[in-house]
Amino acid sequence: MEEEKEQPRDIFPNSPDEDPTDLARKAGKTNLLQWMEVTVSEPEKRTTTSMKVQDTYIVYLIETRITDVKLKCFGDGTTSLWRRYSEFELLRNYLDITYPAVVVPPLPEKKATYVWQNSATDKFDPDFVDRRRAALEIFLLRVAAHPILSQDKVFIGFLQQEEGWKDLVYNTDFQSKADSKLKSLSASFRLKKPDRRFEELKNYSNELENNISNLLKIRARMADKIYGIHKVHANYSRVFCEWSGIEKDMSEPLQSAGHYMNVFSQSVDGALEDEEQYADQLKEYLAFGDALRSVCRKYECLQYDLERAEDSLSYKATQKDQMVQGKAGSFSFTGMKTKLFGGDTPEQRDQKVKQLEEQIQQAEQELEQANKETQKFVDAALRDIDRFKRQKVKDLREIFTNYAIMQIKQSKKGIAIWTSAKDCFTKM
To answer: What is the pTM of this model?
Structure first.
């Protein structure tokens, strides 16, 4: 007998009051991009004046469009709003603190680095602004594709709620959850039992940064040399054109050759502009190195708290044993007082032992909680790190493959130009 096919459930009620994010989750959609498109476009320069001080900045238009027809009942399914770079920073800081076990995608650089002689370095330069726009879009797409980050209501608000969004962020009190830099630094040096996996991850992140940094430096030097070589051909063009005015019999071939030399000279501009896109993609993974170390720092803070809880429990247990046996501990004010004025009465000792037992019980509960939190963090962090590494391999393979294809196309274009120039010379 043929099995009856399961009918689709109507999980999208008529009431528009229910959050479409919750409905999408009920439908088994694990990330935002499964039911929504997100784009960043139309960067616009603006200037505001406050207290006679001008502030010039760039805003970016963020547009979303619901692609699942079942969710179209929520308005027209589209939104658009403007965001400054500082708001992107606020969003990322919130995500980084709220989700400590997640490798949060980085933002694009604020100032151009690893540049070559003709790179755009002014933050208001149209080329630099457009490259930043593309990188900000990639940031949002990576967050929207993440199974955990994409479900965050503050992130959804960033995409769809222009008024009051900052209040929504600050009302979460996320900043109070941030570990101080001093604690992070102290934890990294004072751990007694660091997890080997996180130590290896720190080394891995440093090596990833170093390797990509070296690639970007080499690419910048190569861009300078290639640009110079191509532009020298403009001199060939000028010489051939001037020569054609003297040699009447060779005038046409020389003019044609000069034209091809000029074409070759100008072809480098577009090629190096395309290369900047690949450089920006590598810079994203350069910044991912710090995102990985951020996860390590948060683990170290948790492990440091765990070890302190273990030390506290051990110290209280030792105090109790010494109290029960009537022994004084190491040199202390209490021990000195006991030697000078005599020890506690049995009743006083029993009372202190009882207090220590209560403290030990509390310390055991705190240690158990610290163990649970640390293990939960480690499990979640290792899962997300594994997800990141798989995505990294896929992305870098695509970047290097496309870069190689682009270089092959550019080389073939150069060969075609020089072949045409050779044909001109053979006609002389």
So the answer is: 0.83
